[in-house]
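=== Discrete structure encoding ===
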Amino acid sequence: MQNKLLVFLLLVSPLLSNSQEYVDLLNISYSKTGDTSFQNNHENTTISIFDSKALLPIVINVKTAFITGFDFNIKKFQLFPNSSDTNLYYTRIKIGIATDHSEKWSGTYVLLPILSSDYKKISTEDIYMGGLAVWTYKKRKNFNYKFGLYIGNEAYGFYITPLIGAYYISPNSKFEINSIFPGFIDVNLGISNKTKLGIDYKGNSESFKIHNEDSQTTYTENNSLEFSSYIQNNSLSKNLLLRLKIGFATNTYDVYAVDDKIDLAITPFRIGDNRTKLNPNINSSTFLRLEAIYRFYTSSN
């Protein structure tokens, strides 16, 4: 789940930061891996992911905006060799504010309730709650720092994630770096007025409750890392960005019994992690992703 909150933060930050000149209001993507094998097994699976993010900021005054929106995604693949595909669903609501504290400092404060499971038997036990606080310091007009903290719970237990990041765009707006660690970095370069080349990294962290009809309830924890390169074009419309990505993912979807938890997670550490893994490792794989973004520019570009 942490990767999703980090991407969300990157979407929200420019609401009040003068460095980043746009807000991505809608992001829709679909990706699929090639044949992905299980460790020490001849069976293969493919991992398909549909992902959508919507952001609706409501400006209250020149210093403050109310943040609303949602994320929704579906993952489909086999968690065990010789099993049927499992569908994992993730829904998150965004409720918060972004405000200027001074000429240099701004803050973003968001509640993030999440419903994350296979959606076979939805209950309150499938709902998780998180809270995000991030402060942005504007070093220069085209450069800022971000510091923050995320606190929340997942199927495996309670966790805390310290956040640090930066944003930079060159004076001619051709070269851009956007990052928030530990989970995201994007570097891109404009090669024409409508085309950019980029590379990015995403560190996923999320969990899904799995309701098995004939056996115990379990959950899967995803800690996959994604590295990709992409080409972006906005020939159809200045506000509509189309991306084609090719990447490599370390697929970490570990399954545990529902009551097998850790004591505490402080990213990247796990305290009291004596869990018993129930499924074999899924090997790394390449993937292809198509992505469409609707971008709203907050100043002339």
Summary: Residues 2-12 form the longest helix (11 residues). The CA atoms of residues 264 and 271 lie 5 Å apart.
